[in-house]
Structure formats: structure tokens, C-alpha cells
Amino acid sequence: MAKAKQLAPLPWRKLSEDAAHPKSPDHCQCCGIDHDLHVWIECDEADRETAVAMMVCDGCVKAHITPHARLYLQMEPNRPFPGAMHVCWPCIHQVGLRCASPLLKANGGAGLPIRAAQPTTSFLCGGGCRTINDYGLTPPKCDGFAVLKLMACAGEPPTEPPETNHGLR
């Protein structure tokens, strides 16, 4: 009897590519609402984190993230993640929830300094164990941060970006 030919598994669809709304830090990528939002990190087929982040509301987590075959991890508050941190939102290098800075290693750079506190790690057990990282304060800025200079109005000096302060990513 001839052996059946085994087919390669099909790659799982990515919510980040199928979502109805564009990536933005101020609304859900799935439904477009602007409240109860959390950042989720998309994983690959082997459940490894990728550099892809999504902003998703609580309702869409239950409807789209939980039942999805691909693993998604909720990003811990204040975790350094270029492009998805609050400090990134006014930066000219932010594209959706991705960092396009030429300094970022993922973009071919030498490394993007983001100085952030080391997390305090806790283990939570009961019906399964998991690790919780508390990063404390939001990173204030990275060395790749840049904003457009604004023209001076009525004799005021142009606006300068705030000072830098961060570790390599």
C-alpha cells in the first residue's frame, strides 16, 4: 500500500495583517474603539515573540485573540518595546506600532538605546504558573526619538524634543 503524502502545515493567518483598522496607539486595530486598550505581541508559528505589536480592546481580545490559533502575549505595562511604548507615539520613526528608527537592530542599526528599569519578576501559581514582570516606570525616551521642529509663533523659540534617556534593543 502506498504511503499517503504528508502535507506541510499551512501558516496561521496573522491578526496584525487581517485587522480591519490601521495600527495606531489610540484605537483598537480590530474594531476601532478608543478605550479599554491593551498592547498585544504577535508570536510566530513556533510561539516565539515577534516585533509585531497590536492595540486591541477588551472585547476584541475575547472575540479575536483568545480563540486564535496563533499565540498572542499581552505586553506588560511599561515594558520596553520600540514602537509600542507611550514615549514612541509622537516620534517620527513610529509607523503604526512599529519602530522604523535606523538605529534599531531589527532595521540594520547598531542598537537603539532605551534605558529602562530592570523588571521585578514574580511567579503566580494556581491553576498553572506564569511569570509576571513589573517594569515600574515608563521609559522616558530612547536615543532614536525625534519629532518635527515646529515653526516659532509670534517670536517664540522653536520647540525642541526632550532630552534622551534609555538601553540597547
The total beta strand count reads 7
- Principal-axes shape call: globular
Structural class by sheet pairing and helices? mainly beta
Give me the Rg, rounded. 19 Å
Provide the helix percentage: under 10%
What do these coordinates show?
With 169 residues, this protein is mainly beta. The protein has two domains: 13-75, no CATH class; 78-169, no CATH class. The protein contains two helices and seven strands; from the N terminus they run αββαβββββ.
Question: What's a quick, concise take on this entry?
Answer:
It is built from two helices and seven strands; from the N terminus they run αββαβββββ.
Primary descriptors:
single chain, 169 residues, mainly beta, 2 domains, three-stranded antiparallel β-sheet, two-stranded antiparallel ribbon, 2 helices, 7 strands, 7% helix, globular, disordered C terminus
Write the layout of secondary structure elements.
Layout: H1 15-18, E1 37-43, E2 49-57, H2 58-65, E3 72-74, E4 94-95, E5 98-99, E6 120-124, E7 130-134
